[in-house]
Write a structure and sequence with these properties.
It is built from 2 helices and 4 strands, in the order ββααββ. The strands form 2 sheets. Strands 1-2 form a two-stranded antiparallel ribbon. A two-stranded antiparallel ribbon has the order 3-4. The mean pLDDT is 87.
Length: 124
């Protein structure tokens, strides 16, 4: 691919918002196809409003759909809450994989990452 350079032409574009990001038309079209209307933005300054409007004006096709990286449910695991006691010795009679909404058997998750947790009673 040819260098983008610093002058506008049919094959090169500049971000209307930051005026620092230069793109090949083909590259920005590919980004638009992958990002869709909801996530398409300038890769440098992340402006959406000016960028989206000007790219449409310049003939970039932006599909009205969610981004392709969400198509295969790749982030589904991020919506699942940690649900087991990770204490070295779990004291709950019903087991590590069970918890109650309140009380001594409530599952307390790590306040930083929520990737680990223990029953309230198992924490002491």
């Amino acid at each position: 691919m040819e260098p983008v350079g610093d002058s506008r032409s049919y094959s090169t574009m500049v971000c209307p918002s930051c005026q620092h990001a230069w793109f090949h038309r083909a590259c920005i079209q590919e980004q638009a196809m992958r990002a869709g209307i909801y996530c398409f933005q300038c890769p440098l300054c992340r402006d959406r409003d000016w960028f989206l409007r000007d790219m449409v004006t310049m003939g970039i096709r932006i599909p009205f759909r969610k981004p392709t990286w969400e198509d295969n449910n790749a982030y589904a695991s991020l919506r699942i809450r940690h649900d087991r006691c990770d204490a070295s010795s779990c004291l709950y009679p019903r087991g590590r994989e069970r918890a109650e909404r309140e009380g001594p058997w409530q599952l307390l998750l790590c306040s930083s990452c929520a990737a680990q947790g223990t029953h309230r009673r198992c924490s002491f």
